[in-house]
Amino acid sequence: MPAQDDENDILSLKHHLVNWLFTPLYLLVLFSTVTGYIAALKLSNQPYDIVLIERARLMASRFDLAAEGALPRQDELLPNGARGLVYSLFDRRGQLVLGNASLPRPRPADWSAQGTKLRDTIYGGGKVRLLTLRFQTTRRMPGSEFVLVLAEPDDDRLALGRSILGNIVIPQFIFILIAGLAVWLGFKRGFEPLEKLRQVVAKRRGDDLRPLDDSMAPGEIRPLIQEVNALIARLKLTMEQQKNFIANAAHQLRTPFAGLRAQAELARREDAPPAIKAALEGICEGAGRCSRLVTQLLTLVRNEPEARAGIPMQSLDLHRIAQEAAMQWVPEAMTRQIDLGYESGSVQLPVFGDEHALRDLIDNLLDNAIRYTPNGGHITLRTGYERGAWLRVEDNGRGIPPEERTRVFDRFYRVSGSGQPGSGLGLAIVSEVAQRHGAAVEIEDATDGVGTIFVIRFPHHAEAV
Ligand SMILES: Nc1ncnc2c1ncn2[C@@H]1O[C@H](COP(=O)(O)OP(=O)(O)OP(=O)(O)O)[C@@H](O)[C@H]1O
Ligand SMILES: [Mg+2]
Q1: I need a surface site. Which of 344, 352, 376, 379 has the fewest CB within 10 A?
Q2: Which of 414, 441, 442, 455 to mutate to test the pocket of ligand 1 (most atoms within 8 A of CB)?
Q3: What is the assigned CATH class of domain 222-302?
Q4: Per-residue pLDDT reduced to its tens digit, 364-407
Q5: Closest alpha carbon to 299 in 223, 383, 363, 389
Q6: Model's pTM, two decimal places?
Q7: CATH class (in words) of the domain with range 314-457
Q8: Where are the domains positioned within the chain?
Q9: Using CA atoms in the order 106, 107, 109, 115, what is the torsion angle rounded to 10 degrees?
């Protein structure tokens, strides 16, 4: 969902951090780069200007050294090493006396100014630093007042300016990079506990309403987690109230349904017109279903974690419990001509658990096996030990399609077309009990492709029974 991602991005702390920390920081660097560039150019001009002024003065002093009435020679005026320097000399009348005629002529201000004047201009297609020096010779010459114009290319100054700028800007960029890295690392480390908390919450079962551990969360987030915990506590209370209500309602309904069923059974035995008999039959069946639903509801509520919290778990022998359960279901199986057998690979199977709950689990598995296996079928209850006790219920009934195998554990879920009455709570009870015992429940394919195999694997429990 890109729109959702955009929204998350805008709300994210990282987004705010980048906006409020890095944007001003980048602007600051931009500003300091521009001002640094100007300052670097100024700085790089200074030493070159001093040298240029000195050179001009030196050139002017050559006039004093020249022979009386003569002008200095070209090579005397421009000493060696004056790379790229171009000059011109004008007399008081503005006539070019010596040097390059293409250089800009001195302006009136240059004549009025005392000493040297410096400015930037364009000459010969490039930027140059132009110096004008007004001077007088002490020797007698035709017109003893001159203006020397000296042009120096800007290349060296720019190179120096750029290297100064580089020395300012590069450390600043490195500083921003280090700051960015430090902030990113800080963020990552600061959010690690939150990420762990997220993973813990993601793995939780929907009915696990224990408070979240806020001890590792950053101080700023802790109040939020505490509020979430308070909300969980309120939710837990509401859910408990709802469960209590269901349990109470089921309790209240139990006796009237049992009474209704008994009355209907009694009435059915009396002589009555066929229509009334059929109606009584329906009432009996309906009352029976209601009683079954109420019983299953009560069993489920009894096996929910909150209800079982106070009941202690103990060392038990799964072999004994399974054997007793199988024996109790034999008469029911016989009414359907189903062969119900029990096989155990071990005489003692230690499990740590709650006997009532384990009986509920086995009863529901056997009830289903009998209910969904046609008359004359076979059911085998097996137990054994392999890294923990296990229990299998195998039947050769209608089977459960693979795509239904997770859903059948949902409350009130029934596979359509099962042809049997039921409330859809039996396997939910099995699942609750297994979870409470840390056991895994699996539905396997029958070996010959006909029927269902339920396998419950309990965790290892070494204690002797
Ligand atoms: N051994 C089995 N063979 C075939 N189908 C089964 C078997 N056990 C369960 N099922 C299917 O799974 C569904 C859910 O079973 P579950 O025991 O939860 O509910 P139920 O048997 O319909 O009702 P009740 O609450 O009375 O047990 C059943 O409706 C049935 O279709
Ligand atoms: Mg059932």
Answers
A1: 376
A2: 414
A3: mainly alpha
A4: 999 999 999 999 999 999 999 988 999 999 999 999 999 999 99
A5: 363
A6: 0.62
A7: alpha beta
A8: 1-203, 222-302, 314-457
A9: -10
